[in-house]
Design a protein that fits this description.
Strand content: under 5%
Helix content: 40-55%
Oligomer: single chain
Number of strands: 0
Radius of gyration: 12 Å
Distance between the termini: 15 Å
Amino acid sequence: MSVRSTITTQFQQVAIEQERQLSPLSDELKLVQSGLDSLSFAIIVARLEDSLGIDPFNTTEAVEFPVTFGDFVRLYENFAK
C-alpha cells in the first residue's frame, strides 16, 4: 500500500471512529477544513507511526507544519524515502 493510500485510509477510519464529517480529500484541502479535530490528527499521526514506522513531527529536523492534505501526504512521502 502506498503512503498516500495509507494516509487516506487513516483519515477516513478516524473520521468514522470519531464521528466526524470528513470533507472530500484532495491535495488542496486545508487540514483545518477537513472536518477533523486535533484529537483526530493525533490519532492519525500515532497510527501512521505504527504502520509506516515514521513520525516526521518527532524528529530533530525542522519540519514545516502541513497546511493542506497534499502537504501532509508529501511530508510523509519525503520521510519514507
